[in-house]
Write a structure and sequence with these properties.
The chain is mostly helical. The protein has 3 helices and no strands.
Amino acid sequence: MPLDRLVLILACVVIGAGVTVWLITFFAAAATLPFPAMVLLVPVGLFAWVVWRVIAERLNNREDDHYDRIEK
């Protein structure tokens, strides 16, 4: 496994754990203040979608994989 992929996986795991904790607290706050917190769900959802697309593009990009097979 290339080092950049390992670092990407570790970064995703750490960021995912942080986002999970943040979302749990966010939804707990939304239970007490329903309307203002629900309005913030749209930007949070869009941000999560953009991050998902960036990671998917990085993992499926054939041009980047070409350089993994070159001897160093």
